[in-house]
């Protein structure tokens, strides 16, 4: 193929651990994979797109890139970093209007991300991945990512309710979002500590 038309950045790992219990090397590994790995691929591919003056860079971030959540401080940080990076890169590419920067922010999706999460240390895996039936089916998420890509959306929040409503609350009524997240977060931490 003579050129690269689309780059889909979709690699990464999540996290399930309290910050106070988590070793610093876990945060380093999360940033290395989720953030630096993504911008490294983008750096190599972008030069080809600039030469052809056309292309799409689609990055699967997360709703955790626009809000915070307990037990995922490192994951949230890496996704916030991606959001900031690609929003900045988009402004650097104004001379290339045919190169699209598309940030995809899925909420909970049925996948193996939970089985592969980082915990408080690099050698430990999670014991209970929990029920995933309440999450969006993977094929539905992929369909919405493709629609977002075809329409050159700068950012797409892809989630079922009530998660999507929380995103809007976080965006437009942050004081209420903090109140709600504190209540939900406390219960989430208690469930985590009790092994649920």
From TrEMBL:
The keyword Oxidoreductase applies. Pfam families: adh_short (PF00106). It comes from the Eukaryota. Keywords: Oxidoreductase. One of its GO terms (molecular function) is oxidoreductase activity. InterPro entries: NAD(P)-bd_dom_sf (IPR036291), Sc_DH/Rdtase_CS (IPR020904), SDR_fam (IPR002347), SDR_family_member_7 (IPR053011). PANTHER family: DEHYDROGENASE/REDUCTASE SDR FAMILY MEMBER 7-RELATED, DEHYDROGENASE_REDUCTASE SDR FAMILY MEMBER 7. Belongs to the short-chain dehydrogenases/reductases (SDR) family. This is DHRS7 reductase. It comes from Ramphastos sulfuratus.
